[in-house]
Design goal:
It is a single chain. The protein is α/β, with parallel strands linked by helices. Among the domains are: 3-107, Glutathione S-transferase Yfyf (Class Pi), Chain A, domain 2 (Up-down Bundle), CATH 1.20.1050; 164-225, no CATH class; 335-486 and 497-536, Neurolysin, domain 3 (Orthogonal Bundle), CATH 1.10.1370.40. Helix content is 53%, strand content 6%. The protein contains 27 helices and nine strands. Strands 3-6-7-9-8 form a five-stranded mixed sheet, with helices on both faces. The chain has a two-stranded antiparallel sheet with strand order 1-2. β6 and β7 (398-405) form a beta hairpin. α7 packs antiparallel against α11. It is globular. The protein binds zinc ion. The site of zinc ion has 4 residues, from α16.
Length: 674
């Protein structure tokens, strides 16, 4: 696939899509069948999407300017073509009418679900607006586009022009020599003599290391200035974004933006998402209070006096001078046992046993232009990329294949993801299902000449998380191509990946592949138990942090007019989170000024998804915990009820079938109870 060929294929794919959509727009109700309406709609742009997907993938894994240019050209050409398309409204009418036809009731549940989702998408997209409303909506979209770019730009600007010049060295007591030399050089360059210049990047070091409280206090603003200062203040930007989002949602008949976004998600409505987060916050309150009390006691010990409030500029310093036994489990102790190839093979062995699969590595070739591909070999985009086939152990059939591209290099994106590259065609009366194709991409510790190739526990975490996505991408073989893994509700997508992370904390699983790289000794039981224990009380602060983000994100998108409009953002946010704050000595800027996940990354009114999927995956894991983490029968049920289903049934149903009950927040909260 060369950039030149991609541009030729693009024109062919656009022509094909146009022809197919014209045919669809002309279907009359009397002649309508599932195949010439909804199936035709699913397939119309298939080749166009496929082409875009392949090219985007190549642009993510190579540093080729020609590919980057082709991707930009393809994207511009496709958007322009979509904007010009005339029969969108007509196609919508054909499908809306067809959805009411009596034959729909005779279709399989998967096909009926497919139809319901298309109609629901039309409703959210608001194609039923009056021309004036449509014009206003387009204007809102334009302004939001501008505002969200501004929001990101303000974050990119960081703390902007913040700096601090120190003239007396004793004020920097505790700072290491090389740091002082650098700060002095920076000051000299800026025209100061006998001085030290602190920038936002170096202010963090001062907060951690400097023994002089007053210097830490003066540096603290430099560490929290992003999104707060003058020209790059995100407060007015955020107010306007929320106002416009609310207006656009109201036009479509929704009470607020969050309610609109919840449409088509597993939680169904925003109230439900908020009550889930409120429930988790309430259940975490005792653990949080205990945490705050313990922290304040520790800080008081370090400070040598009884503290009732804590300065935000003292936390990093106090944590840094704590004795090592108070700092938690040191994961680097595991590294000597994590030989890269053992970890990769070990992960596959676990999932081949649990899911009834066989993985087979294929020879690969990295070709220069003009070189011929060996018949038995798979072409790859870099010599380090590997390829594996996945077979069903019971039937022997080939389910799919995947590329494994694990190590960082120039021009490669990251940090890690797993994507389907091609969804195979479903089985028909006379042909078996086509295999799927996917890629698992990461930037884990690369091999180094002359030393053993060892991974960190965090690398292992990345691998197992992405492998969960991979199994979800490769296994579903339903009736429709679009009902693969990406056809599930957005708030279910991370469940298999988060579930499969659990195995990296399980002594029974670690025992299958963790051997010391020098002695070959298995992981000591004591170390394995420490890891499992650390997992059981996984960091409360991370958990709370996600809950705070989710709470504020939902409140902002549900109650903007009631709770935020016309008010100072920091104060309004602090008020909402008051029961779960450290007793800070001064007000702290809200994280909402710098969180672009819910502004530009599609997680608006969706930050709860991280916690929601954690609830679901913790719940799903309880069944493995009860029946055995290496129990093939439980693995088979997980495959049958969830992975094989993909997007062909509602996620709530899949989950209920697997667990035989409704999800509850208890399994997750267990991890944080003191
Ligand atoms: Zn993920």
């Amino acid at each position: 696939m060369t950039p030149q060929q991609a541009l030729i294929d693009l024109e062919a794919a656009i022509r094909e899509a146009d022809e197919r959509l014209n045919t669809l727009a002309a279907v009359t109700l009397e002649r309508a069948t599932f195949d010439n309406t909804f199936l035709a709609y699913e397939q119309a742009e298939e080749n166009l999407r496929q082409l875009q997907g392949y090219m985007r993938h190549l642009s993510n894994v190579t540093a080729s300017p020609a590919i980057q240019q082709a991707v930009t050209a393809i994207s511009a050409r496709t958007s322009a073509h979509h904007a010009k398309r005339k029969n969108t409204e007509q196609i919508k009418q054909v499908l809306m009418q067809a959805a009411k036809a009596p034959w729909v009731q005779e279709l399989s549940p998967a096909k009926q679900l497919f139809i319901r989702r298309i109609i629901s998408k039309f409703e959210t997209e608001g194609r039923s607006l009056t021309p004036a409303q449509r014009q206003r909506r387009a204007a809102i979209t334009m302004e939001l586009h501008h505002l969200t770019s501004q929001f990101t730009e303000n974050i990119r600007q960081g703390a902007g022009s913040w700096q601090l010049v120190i003239h007396t060295q004793s004020e920097l007591h505790g700072m290491p020599q090389h740091w002082l030399q650098q700060a002095a050089r920076a000051a000299a360059q800026a025209g100061y003599t006998n001085a030290w210049l602190i920038t936002p990047a170096t202010a963090h070091d001062v907060l951690r290391l400097c023994t002089v409280e007053d210097t830490r206090r003066r540096c603290w603003p430099g560490t929290v200035a992003t999104g707060t200062r003058h020209a790059s203040d995100n407060e007015p930007v955020l107010h306007r974004i929320l106002e416009l989002r609310h207006e656009a949602a109201s036009m479509l008949g929704y009470p607020n933006h969050a309610e609109m976004k919840a449409h088509g998600r597993m939680v169904k409505d925003a109230e439900h998402a908020l009550s889930l987060i409120d429930d988790l916050l309430a259940k975490s309150k005792p653990a949080w209070d205990a945490y705050v009390a313990a922290e304040m006691k520790r800080f008081s010990q370090v400070a040598g006096k009884q503290l009732t409030t804590i300065n935000p500029w003292d936390v990093a310093y106090y944590n840094n001078i704590l004795p090592p036994e108070q700092k938690g489990f040191d994961y680097s102790k595991l590294t000597p046992y994590l030989q890269a190839e053992n970890c990769i093979q070990g992960m596959m062995a676990i999932w081949s046993k649990l899911l009834g699969l066989r993985f087979e590595e294929r020879p690969t070739s990295y070709l220069k232009p003009g070189q011929e591909l060996n018949e038995n070999s798979i072409e790859v985009w870099h010599p380090s990329v590997r390829f594996f086939n996945v077979y069903d152990t019971a039937t022997g059939s080939l389910l799919g294949g995947f590329y494994l591209d694990l190590y960082p290099r120039q021009g490669k994106g990251g940090p890690a993801w797993c994507m389907p590259l091609r969804q195979g065609n479903p089985a028909t009366a006379d042909t078996p299902a086509e295999p799927h194709l996917a890629v698992l991409l990461a930037n884990i510790t690369p091999p180094q000449a002359g030393s053993p190739h060892l991974l960190s526990h965090y690398d292992l975490h990345t691998l197992h998380h992405e492998f969960g996505h991979l199994m979800h991408h490769l296994l579903p073989h339903g009736e429709l191509r679009s009902q693969g893994s990406l056809g599930v509700e957005q708030d279910f997508l991370e469940v298999p990946s988060q579930l499969q992370e659990n195995w990296i904390w399980e002594p029974e699983a670690l025992a299958t592949f963790a051997y010391h790289h020098e002695t070959g000794a298995p992981l000591p039981a004591e170390l394995a138990e420490q890891i499992a224990a650390d997992r059981r009380k996984s960091p409360l602060l991370d958990h709370m942090h996600l809950l705070w983000m989710a709470k504020l994100d939902l409140e902002l998108h549900m109650f903007y007019h009631e709770k935020f409009k016309g008010r100072a953002l920091d104060a309004a946010c602090a008020e909402i989170l008051a029961p779960w704050q450290m007793p800070w000595s001064v007000p702290i800027p809200t994280r909402m000024r710098t969180l672009d996940h819910n502004i530009t990354k599609g997680y608006d009114a969706g930050m709860y998804i991280y916690k929601w999927t954690e609830v679901l995956s913790s719940e799903a894991f309880t069944r493995f915990r009860e029946e055995g983490v290496m129990n093939p029968a439980t693995g088979a049920a997980y495959r049958r009820d969830i992975l094989d289903k993909g997007g062909s049934t509602p996620a709530t149903e899949q989950f209920r079938t697997f667990l035989n009950r409704e999800p509850d927040t208890d399994a997750l909260i267990q991890r944080f109870l003191p």
